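The protein record passed on below.

***
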Amino acid sequence: MLYQRYIEIGRVCYIRLGDHAGKTCVVVDMVDQKHLLVDGPETGVPRCVLRLNQVAITDLKITIPRGCKTKKVRVELTKANIPAKFAKTSLAKKAAAKVAKANLGDFERFQVRVAKTLRNRKIRTTVRKMKKSS
């Protein structure tokens, strides 16, 4: 099978771009081929239309009817424990790492650069030793 994640009603998405970037939402309806009606009552995303290229599709899905109300979405999200499940995904971990890196101060960035230099130096020396010995 080529695709595993389909855009469907109840699919949990991560908003990558726009006003609500970094939050999760649920697809409530499909407006057309490029626009989704989403709702995120747990994360503070109001019911709005987003472009498909603004969201990242996740493996998580809840069962809701097409065009259901926010209250029903909230109930299904809490019943399926979606926020905790999303926090364990690699997408959430990458987003948290990106935020942590953006919040580094000047000295912390310097420490990261020095550590990276030392690590690369060790790798370079071991590779050179391995090349000499073979």
